[in-house]
Structure formats: structure tokens, C-alpha cells
Amino acid sequence: MSRLSEKLKNALQVAPPAMGFFSSARISSKPKMLLVAWANLEDFEKEPGLCEGADAAVIVSAKIPAARALKATSKTLGEIPFGVWFEGDAQGLKALDGAGTDFVVFSPEKMPLASLDVEKPGRVAGIPLDLEDGLLRAVSELPVDAFIINSPGTTPLTFQDLMRFRRLGDWITKPLMAVVPAPITGDEVKALWDAGIDALVVSLSSENQAGFRELRKTLDGLTLKTKRKWMRANAIVPAVKSEESAHGGAPDEGGDEEDE
Question: One digit per residue, pLDDT tens: the chain, 260 residues?
Fold first, then answer.
């Protein structure tokens, strides 16, 4: 399990009320929405403290970063798990794992199926906000840790965006991460949470670092509703009764005397 996957699991798990005299594992008493930084490798290298306050980070690079650069980034980030936007092959995955990469973010249409033979790093699939219905029914079965929704991250969120988020949240059972602008208000965060979003992904640079930290404070100050993904709405198909059962069972062999 990737460290990102473990963080998502722990953030969404809520401790039940203590019973008896036995102590239980330390689990948060309330669910938490995670904050993920999305930045260019050059920005990570220029400003070591760029991702302060992030729960995880994603490195975007025109090509797969050199192992030396990734190891330096890993050392800089410390306990913050990081991933790389990846569009390569199975050998590239092995190289990334050896350089300390916790997970990769990829486009499903570009990741070769042969990568299934490589257990690490973890996988996060990028999906569009308007994912077509035919794929939506199958996406939860993919062998990935989570999904990143490629939503417009530089414009104010709209009600239409919220409707689309909820559509994805109602169908997809695995953790959902959404690209959003920063900062956003507490009410916007709660609306996204109720729609099924588990983590916010923010494009981060030195120019919007203040907005990122403001969003961190907003998330820390919120009390979110306990969310159970297995109780999300699913399509319900009404059962069609047979003609016999609809009329109270099979007719008597002798027929109905009143009809004679």
C-alpha cells in the first residue's frame, strides 16, 4: 500500500465510541479532507519549503525526472509522500520506485497494461470531470489507489462543476481527489465533501503559496460530516414480477367457478 493510500484511508476512517476497558488504535474522531500540492519539479527545487502544510505532493515534469533529482526532492519533503505525473512503461515505474516515488499519476489511455506486473509505486488515475457514462460504470474496478478528477483548477467552481463532482462521487467507490483553485471557502469545501471528494489538489507555485496555506487553515478548522462511501446512491432497477406472481400465484387447475 502506498503512503498516500494509507493517508487517505486513515483520514476517512472515524473511530467508533470506545467500549469496555480495552484500548483501541488511535484513529481520528472525525473525517478529514486531504490537501495535495501539484507543482513543477523546478519549483520544488527552487523553494524547499514550497509544500509546507501539504498532505502529499505531485511532481509535474516534461520528462521522467532523474533519480538524483527525485531523491533530493524526497529528502526535502521528508514525511510528505510524493508522486510523479507518469506516461511511461513498466521499467520506468521500477526506476521511480527506486528513487523514492510513492505513487504515480497517469492517464488510463496511456498507461500500458503490462505495468500490472509492477507492484510499486502506487497508482492514481486521472479522469475528466465529464467522464462518459459507459466508462463510469467500470472505473471503480481499475487496480488503482485513487482517482484525480481533472477539473478546471484556475477558475471559480460553479454549480455545474458540483453536479458533475456528485455524479462521479455517486458511482466511484475509491477515493476521489479534485483539482481546485486556491483558496476556496469553507462552504465550498463542505459542498465538495458532500459530493464525494476526499482530497483537494491545488496547483502550487511561489505566487499562490499564500492561498495554499490559507486553504490549509480552512481545512484544519472545518468539521465535516461522517461519510460512508458504501452508502452512496446506486441505480435501482425495480424487480418485474411474473404474470403469475402479480396475480397472486398460479391459477387453480379446475379454473374459477365464478367465471363459468
Answer: 789 999 998 887 755 544 444 444 445 557 889 999 998 888 887 887 888 899 999 988 777 888 888 888 888 888 899 999 887 666 778 788 788 889 999 888 888 788 887 788 899 999 999 999 888 888 888 899 999 998 766 788 899 999 999 999 999 989 999 999 888 999 999 999 999 999 999 988 878 888 899 999 999 999 888 765 544 544 444 445 555 444 555 545 555 554 54
Three-state DSSP class for residue 186: helix
Alpha-helical (H) ranges within 13-155 are: 41-46, 67-77, 90-98, 133-136
DSSP 78: T
pTM of the model: 0.79
Grouping H, G, I as helix, E, B as strand and the rest as coil, residue 110 is coil
- Domain architecture of the chain: domains with CATH: 8-13+27-242 (3.20.20.330)
Secondary structure (3-state) at 89: coil
**Residue 242 cell numbers, joined:** 411474473
Q: CA torsion, points 176, 149, 2, 184, in degrees to nearest 10?
A: -70
Answer whether 171's CB lies under 8 Å from 201's CB: no
Q: What does the block give as the cell for 230?
A: 458504501
Residues 6+ positions from 25 with CB-CB distance below 8 Å: none
Which three cell numbers mark 12? Answer: 476517512
Report the C-alpha gap between 173 and 182 in whole angstroms: 26
**3-state SS assignment for residue 82:** strand
203 close to 152: Cβ distance less than 8 angstroms: no
